[in-house]
Amino acid sequence: MTTLYSPGTLVYLENSEQGWLPAEVSSCTRGAAGALTLVLRDENGKETTVTGSSPSDLPHLRNPPLLESADDLATLSHLNEPSILYAVETRYAQRKIYTYSGIVLLAVNPFEPVPMYTPEIVKAYIGRTKGELEPHLFAIAEDAYAAMALDGTGQTIIVSGESGAGKTESAKLVMRFIAAPKSPALNSDKNSFVDGASQVEQQIQATNPILEAFGNAKTTRNDNSSRFGKYIQLLFDTNRQIVGARVRTYLLERSRLTFQSQTERNYHIFYQLCAGLPSQNLRELGLDSDYSAFHYLNQGGPSTTELSDRDKFHATREALGIIGIDDARQTSIFQVLAALLHLGNINVTQTRTDAIIDDEDPSMLRAMEFLGVNASEFKKWTIKKQITTRSEKIVTTLTAPQAVGVRDSISRFVYACLFEWLVTAINESLTGKYGDAATRAETYIGVLDIYGFEHFDKNSFEQFCINYANERLQHEFNTYVFKLAQEDYVKEKINWTFIDFDDNQSAIDLMEGKLGILAILDEESRLPLGSDASFLQKLNTQLDKPANKAVYKMPKFANAAFTIAHYALDVTYQVDGFLEKNRDTVPEEHLALLTSSSNPFLREVLDTALHRVGGEPVDPASPNGVVSKIPDPGRAGLVGTGRGTSVKKPTLGSIFKSSLGTLMDMLRMTNVHYIRCLKPNQHKMAWEFNSLQVLAQLRASGVLETIRISTAGYPSRWTFEDFARRYFTLIPWRDGPSLIKREQFKRLCVLIAQRTGMDKTKYQMGETKIFLRTGVLATLESLRSAKLNAVLFLQTNMRRLVAMKRYRHFQRSVLGIQSHWRGAVARKAFKEVRQKAHREAEAAKAKKAAEAAAERERKRKAKEAASVNEKAPSEHGSPGKTKIRRMFSFGSKEKSTLALPDQPSPEPPLIGRRPSRLEAATKRLSRSWYDSDGSTSASAARSKSPNHLAPPASSLPVGSSSSNKIATPIYEQFMKKPAWNASTSLLH
Ligand SMILES: Nc1ncnc2c1ncn2[C@@H]1O[C@H](COP(=O)(O)OP(=O)(O)OP(=O)(O)O)[C@@H](O)[C@H]1O
Fold it and tell me: What residue stretches are annotated with the Myosin motor domain (predicted)?
């Protein structure tokens, strides 16, 4: 353990504000009893001392930097809470909102539009396997599609998370991706996702505004919060072509219809109706654009914006039209909605003991007119109650609050029925009236958008149901993850003792068991005198036993409450209102009134919701007598399916339990894919990450629980090839590359394990993979980076040495060439000057001689003339004259010889002559340069490089002042020329 915490080791320190802080071990000492004392320094330089003898007492280890922001948390070597949190946070800071955690995709809400769903990105993910590209919703959707296309197995994508985490947005994106035709063979317009929505996609999209208008509301946590769970099944035929879809909904929050807290609102549709309906229609329905006159709307906060309600109303109407609900039907829907608003305004007063409603109460009259129900009968059964005993029927009066309770329960019931009817209408549009698509469908991909685990200051029946659903989903998840892990061990034939993981079965048993909370609640709800207090008393008597010690607790400081230890955390539920909410069914007398209404639309709504045709019950699984191969994810009725109205009414809890059971059965038949949405802060601020809040969600979403399961086995598993290629550097050089070349990866893995001294209990060799226990990978990574650092150090210095040597050699050569060239140029210039001077001197000398000869001639002629004059008769035949003439002609010959100047001797031709020393040196240098560069043809290299030699002599100034200055072009070329290819590693 000391080695794990050696100085310099990176760890995490627990911090009350940020959850965890990165820190470094600055010293580690072992005490006498074996306990370690660590001094840790955090990022702010603050030192903390920690002492402990077991790993659980000591700080969590940090992963090596390479793994710290890994896109799959399952690859982290140290799988612990802070590592997971740190990885998610780091990636979010890098604007990467998606991260894999094994089979789960974590999606952190960006709270602003991100360019991650563009047509290019959609195209990129089509046909790619998970892990090929960055983590993304589309990768999960494509994975599900590929698995379904392969063997026709049904697929389910479960999208969960707390309110406002982004479930609905994610589910919509996933469905859009799946609804797009993928295979060109199936659809010639393979880009239809990108270029425009397909018809089925349009229909599916049309369901969103409808379900959102009737099932979503503004809450403190989300302005558009879905108040129900939904499962949308996209149906495919044998060609894997989408033929339709089916929607199932779960547990609509009914209480919202009659009560909202000040910061929240009722369902959007009521505000849309008041804002969007023309004033004439509003008058006809007794409504007003100022909805504050209605009790069901004025308890909550203001609308987000009037304009958006009006706009959305038009979108809702348009969508209703797309799914086949014409204007007349739409008017009927609005009439029922108006009736509910008027119901809420019925004035119930109180005499000393009894409730009173005025016969002429305008709200009651209007509501009954729209509902087609007799007003006096309605009034009677709102302020009175009939109890049927074995022998007689007793009618008693109700108090005003009780009468208001009855009034509100009728409103909630009618609204829930209307919602159910809408879902049926949507399904008819998506599958065809007679369930055409459902019969043709061979397989499916379902998307479950379900509320995440909830834990508030005050938790009631709704939270109990939601957390019960999450407990069951978590159980399925654990089983699936664990099963997958174990299947891999079996497939790879490693030694593995199957362990029974301590899962959440006991919490589930506590909630749904024969003598569990739901059973006791139902029993109490059916008793005429049952109350919340008696329910709690029974709970404590029956459940507060040693067998349930771990999951059921009686809180010390709350009287009317009980605590359940959920897999995520302990939640205390206030029993106040449990019975009323669980019963939430209308009195039988009211049910009879409603089902015999004179309003045919209302009768149809109720028949649909109660799964009856013309008052007779039908099988909810195949309401049209249609039998589909596709399993139905739950279609439980709102009330029983018995004959007439005298049926035993199931409670809300039992309805929920039964639909959840059907859903779980279906999930077990499918391949499940998980998307866990995380809300990074409560203020809906873009890119703000609150570590503590995310940590709580990671715990609640079961991500950390999965990690606990994983760490029980071999969380890291690598194929032999991947492992060998990454870690072969840890063994002597002679073995690694040769075994890789021969593809003996398994042998290489064994060698790596032996030579690095891996503890034999910490790894196992499978058939194709090596399985590693938690922490092993981190050790290998640190060994690898130490070795790589040493190699890099050597490489750096070697490269430096070689580069320096070559540079100096080159510098010397360049200087030599330059000085030689300068000398040659100077000599040539000097020679020319000298030759010119010589020629001038010769010319002057010749000129002087010619002048002298001319003078002599002149003088001779003068002399001759003088002597002729003296001896005129003897001019011819005189022997003296002949001699003189001969002498003269000799003199002219001499003169012509002297007049020819000296010619400079021409340079010998270069070809065929031996090169000078200078030329030879230049040639040598250039050859050495290109040879050292690795070029095989010096001449080719020369022709490529215009500056391979010093500039021509003519361009060099004679006597250049810097004789030791390297000619710039060559120097630059040298400097530009990479002496070594930087990417070339000595390792490879
Ligand atoms: N991928 C995303 N990109 C941009 N914004 C998003 C994304 N996902 C969610 N959001 C934002 O977060 C808000 C809440 O998302 P959404 O309604 O999907 O939450 P939810 O988990 O379904 O909540 P609830 O359970 O209350 O219905 C959206 O209105 C949207 O503004």
Answer: 68-785
